[in-house]
Design a protein that fits this description.
This protein has 271 residues and is of the alpha+beta class. It folds into 2 domains: 121 residues, N-terminal domain of MutM-like DNA repair proteins; 124 residues, Helicase, Ruva Protein, domain 3 (Orthogonal Bundle), CATH 1.10.8. The chain is built from 6 helices and 10 strands, in the order αβαβββββββααααββ. The strands form 3 sheets. Strands 1-6-7-5 form a 4-stranded antiparallel β-sheet. Helix 1 packs across helix 6, helix 3 crosses helix 6 and helix 5 packs across helix 6. It is elongated and about 55 Å long. About 3% of the residues have low confidence.
Length: 271
């Protein structure tokens, strides 16, 4: 499933082609996605100029004066800007046709993604209103994580992946950040010290930033907004490396399950 760096890579890929463009037509070929595509999208969005393309957590927001179109890529969603006449592929579920002869095309083989519409500020949408901080927000810090962890016995990895606390840090980058910070992912969140959370917050920012710079991580079906795969997978130090030697100390990487997710860690480096 695409995580924050993959979604941000898509945003940066499509935004230059969309901002300032007028949507002339919306074509929905498959309205039954994760949630039904709202019928008003096809009536309210045409004629509108796309003012900004933003990201909130793993949602992409196409803002217009009349409202905002929300995309979620789910597990296999892809967004590409193409000439409108480009032949359709299987699972091309929706097009936003633009005045310049191109379209934003949404493809999703598993249909776990979403295309929604809201006339309210998108921050008030039920899917977005209870989300936690963005990793690059000025308010995000080790102090913030330490405060949110007080009294919590579930594992620290679970805290980092809790969207009500911090958004966009999925399984891959939670594993990588905890390894870089030297924190055992299985430790109860409330027993991690402030100094350790300060290291963790710094590593979350650093690793996500580097992943965005490299275009995300190529796993399964992810491609960026320009149709290019991400390359951060080449930099993964623990995720998916069960029994491989730790790059820092040579100890064999171990694996367990936390919250039904595969968790990778070095038993020597992470305490």
């Amino acid at each position: 499933m695409p995580e924050l760096p993959e979604v941000e890579t898509v945003r940066r890929g499509i935004a230059p082609h969309l901002v300032g463009q007028t949507v002339v037509r919306v074509v929905v070929r498959q309205p039954r996605l994760r949630w039904p595509v709202p019928e008003e999208l096809a009536t309210m969005l045409p004629g509108q100029v796309i003012r900004r393309v933003d990201r909130r957590a793993k949602y992409l927001l196409l803002r217009t004066d009349a409202g905002t179109a929300l995309f979620h890529l789910g597990m296999t969603g892809q967004l590409r800007v193409l000439p409108t006449a480009t032949p359709l592929r299987k699972h091309d579920h929706a097009d936003l046709a633009l005045a310049d002869g191109h379209c934003l095309r949404f493809n999703d083989s598993r249909r776990f993604g979403a295309l929604l519409w809201t006339v309210e500020p998108p921050e008030q949408h039920p899917l977005l209103q209870s989300l936690g901080l963005e990793p690059f927000d000025a308010a995000f810090s080790g102090v913030y994580l330490h405060q949110r962890a007080q009294g919590r016995m579930p594992a620290v990895k679970t805290l980092v992946m809790d969207n009500h606390v911090l958004v966009g840090v999925g399984n891959i980058y939670a594993n990588e950040s905890l390894h870089a910070a030297g924190i055992d992912p299985r430790r109860p969140a409330g027993q991690v010290t402030l100094a350790e959370y300060q290291r963790l917050a710094a590593m979350v920012r650093e690793i996500l930033g580097e992943a965005i710079h490299q275009g995300g991580t190529t796993l399964r079906d992810f491609v960026g907004g320009e149709g290019e795969p991400g390359y951060f997978q080449q930099s993964l130090r623990v995720y998916g490396r069960y029994l491989a030697p730790c790059a820092a100390c040579g100890e064999s990487i171990q694996r367990c399950r936390l919250g039904q997710r595969a968790t990778y860690y070095c038993p020597r480096c992470q305490r």
